[in-house]
Design a protein that fits this description.
Blueprint lengths: L5 E7 L5 E8 L5 E8 L5 E9 L4 E4 L1 H4 L5 E7 L3 E9 L2 E6 L9 E9 L4 E8 L5 E9 L4 E9 L4 E5 H4 L4 E18 L5 E5 L1 E2 L2
Antiparallel strand pairs: 1-6, 2-5, 2-7, 3-4, 3-6, 7-8, 9-14, 9-16, 10-13, 10-14, 11-12, 11-14, 14-15
Length: 204
């Protein structure tokens, strides 16, 4: 598995959701680690840093630090790191690894093999570059017929959100093309206290 010194989390949630983000220095030497939270427009709203000893874990205190609105989180280290995020609201739990191009969880073509009719699907895409990302979204039914096709623009280091209303509330699939590398998350809420979270599968 490829190692990375920078990992991305497209969402740290506001409101009733409680976030837990933990990163680990997986090296034999100390690592200087910086955590940066940005709003939807890619503007820095909060940051902190720490020095981690070999194999030391750090719970980044971003959840209580910026409760006003959803933000993204970028973690930068002088040495390779790993990290994960758990997001809790009652019995609903979303879990994601820190994403990066090196671990093939960020790219310019992402695919979600399932969208669900009658449930609440929420999609979020983080532009991990300093350039505007122009994005095309294609929603298809299970027979491969296009149901919706639309475009969007994501500011540098910003994120974009859309739901099942935009994709046609369809039982099918979702494909996303971007001019810049992005990280894509899907949150599926069944409405009965159960939620599923997954990263978009990177095709290129």
């Amino acid at each position: 598995m490829a190692l990375t010194r920078k990992i991305y989390f497209p969402q740290i949630a506001a409101g009733n959701w409680a976030d837990w983000v933990q990163v680990v220095n997986i090296n034999q030497q100390p690592a200087n680690v910086q955590a940066i939270a940005r709003n939807m427009q890619g503007i820095l709203v909060w940051q902190t840093s720490n020095t981690l000893q070999p194999y030391q874990a750090w719970v980044i205190p971003v959840d209580p630090a910026y409760p006003q609105a959803d933000v993204s989180l970028t973690v930068i280290s002088t040495l390779p790191i790993v990290g994960e995020r758990h997001c809790h609201a009652g019995t609903e739990v979303l879990a994601f690894p820190g994403a990066s191009p090196e671990t093939k969880t960020a790219g310019t073509r992402l695919f979600f093999p399932e969208t669900v009719y009658g449930c609440h699907d929420n999609f979020r895409f983080l532009n991990i570059t300093e350039y505007y990302a122009f994005v095309t979204v294609i929603s298809r039914d299970i027979n491969g017929f296009t149901v919706r096709r639309f475009t969007g623009q994501i500011p540098p280091l910003g994120f974009w959100i859309f739901t099942d209303n935009e994709i046609g509330n369809v039982q099918g699939t979702l494909e996303v093309f971007s001019t810049q590398p992005v990280v894509g998350e899907r949150h599926l809420h069944y409405g009965n206290g159960v939620a599923v979270g997954q990263l978009g599968q990177v095709l290129s």
